[in-house]
Amino acid sequence: MIVQSIVEFLGANAAETAFCCIALLTLYSLVFGYTKPQVIDTVTNEPLAVIGLPTSLPWLFPKTRARLSSIPNAWRWVQEGYEKYNKHGKAFKVHLISGDMVILPQEMVSETKNLPSNVVTIKSLEALAVRWTFDEYVNADVFHVGVIRKDLTARLAAVTPAIVEELDLSFKHYIPKLAAPPDEKGWREVTMYDLVLKVVARTSHRVFLGEELCREEEYLDLSIKYAITVFPTGMLINCFPKFLHPVIGPMLAIPLRILRRKARKFLDPIILKRLALIRDNVPESERPNDLMQWLIEASLARGGGFATVDAIAVRVLTVAFAAIHTTSLSGTNTFYDLAYLSSLTPNDAYDRPPADLLRDELLQVFPPPHEFNKRYMQRLYNLDAFLKETLRLRLVGATHSERLVAAKGGFTSKSGLYLPCGTAFAFPGSARLADPDVFENPTEHRHARFYRGDVAGADEDVDEIIYTEKGSAADKKLDRYMVTVTEDFPVFGMGVHACPGRFFAANELRILVAWFLLRYELKPITTRPPPTWFVCIDIMNTTAKLHIREREAMKLE
Ligand code: HEM
């Protein structure tokens, strides 16, 4: 009851809550911010240049005012610093609301991307306050990353029929529920993000947890709500000094714990049933073959507190968190681009509406009855290139690959930049992707830059080549493939922390867009729903409505 009241109070007074957090953070940074060891260029012995300090009354709490002003302006500062410093091989610093961040030049990507975790750690563990928003076990060992990278990717072809089936059932289930009734011309208005989120959540859960739970509406909603609540909770916790986290963390994570308790009503019986199968030595071939099973087996191998029902349930929610929103945002952005670019055709990049281009390719590769399979999905060169271009333009914020220096003695780069222990650093994201020296016509959506249907060997199993790293580094044709991570394509991160779920996400996205384009039309829109910048994050518009219409031929099938 008390907890519910607190949650309701915080919800009803969101602005005041945010203000209090900002005030606390300001106070904290005032006290501790000035005493930290500095990032130094050891060649010149100079500290780093800072972008974003106030120019009026520069002596009046400049750092604190910069932090507050970073909420609407940080992305502009990174853009400015990229031109002024990064492009000349130099780093610079910004004071963000979440703390100081050093933005390194591109030249330092290769020397930092594969550093071990005792030198550099992934910042998201701290930024999301994983210890409190998930649990200490997820914080202590992210072995689910290996399970996704190895087991899920290796079994992608095997799970594709389940993805195809569930996606078809989900679209057919959610379109009538979420779209308005058709107008006289058959167009139905729908909030595209809501539709894509539901379809992606259900389809992903089919592969993660099996048929039993993926269609349980209440569980799906809980898992989505959990994921949505993690971000603000993590941010809120990080507004407080570290030494207060053991007190503040559990308190602020109460709403998450309530959601978790509700989700466990669904997860626990399944986990217990599966643990019993293992205990009773049921042969592996007779056990379920999905992500939950692989996670359970990996948790048992890890042993101790990692192997409890609670810890396994939290890890399942962690994977859903990492997977569902990123894929839904990518899918929705693709539909926004398809609808928007259609209103601009013909132009230099598209001589006809891109939806027609992609649909023709689909009909060629998968003629009726349109039976999708993973191997042939890779022959959808136009679709792949279109998806990759949407990811390039829409899925990278002002920075990427945020890391924290963990080595006690700090880290000194080859160029002599000394980053003390605890320094947060990242690389410029959107600024570099919009740099004409890196991409031609960088701000235009041009799928042709990633089209790979014209290269020899395009029919091989490219996932296999990239996953097993059999391709030669000089093999530039692989760079154009959707999930290839290159230093100029940071959508899936870099190096040791590159997204382990990207092969799964790409497969799911291809099927999602292909299913839709075969069966539905999108009404062109003349304005693309604008994103909002929050510090360094480019937040997609999730409330925009599109008009969709079922194709006549498909109604008859
Ligand atoms: C289009 C969809 C996706 C995008 C754009 C995306 C993007 C990313 C990025 C940029 C990172 C690196 C973060 C960093 O360097 O700080 C990352 C990491 C991660 N992603 Fe994805 N992701 C997607 C889908 C998925 C899916 C489907 C899964 C799970 C099945 C997943 C699981 C993870 C995990 C567990 C990590 C952490 C890796 C680590 O700590 O080493 N992602 N993702």
From TrEMBL:
<feature type="binding site" description="axial binding residue">
    <location>
        <position position="499"/>
    </location>
    <ligand>
        <name>heme</name>
    </ligand>
</feature>
<dbReference type="GO" id="GO:0016705">
    <property type="term" value="F:oxidoreductase activity, acting on paired donors, with incorporation or reduction of molecular oxygen"/>
</dbReference>
<dbReference type="GO" id="GO:0020037">
    <property type="term" value="F:heme binding"/>
</dbReference>
<comment type="similarity">
    <text>Belongs to the cytochrome P450 family.</text>
</comment>
<dbReference type="InterPro" id="IPR036396">
    <property type="entry name" value="Cyt_P450_sf"/>
</dbReference>
<protein>
    <recommendedName>
        <fullName>Cytochrome P450</fullName>
    </recommendedName>
</protein>
<dbReference type="GO" id="GO:0004497">
    <property type="term" value="F:monooxygenase activity"/>
</dbReference>
<dbReference type="InterPro" id="IPR002403">
    <property type="entry name" value="Cyt_P450_E_grp-IV"/>
</dbReference>
<keyword id="KW-0479">Metal-binding</keyword>
<dbReference type="GO" id="GO:0005506">
    <property type="term" value="F:iron ion binding"/>
</dbReference>
<dbReference type="Pfam" id="PF00067">
    <property type="entry name" value="p450"/>
</dbReference>
<keyword id="KW-0560">Oxidoreductase</keyword>
<dbReference type="InterPro" id="IPR017972">
    <property type="entry name" value="Cyt_P450_CS"/>
</dbReference>
<dbReference type="InterPro" id="IPR001128">
    <property type="entry name" value="Cyt_P450"/>
</dbReference>
<keyword id="KW-0408">Iron</keyword>
<keyword id="KW-0503">Monooxygenase</keyword>
<keyword id="KW-0349">Heme</keyword>
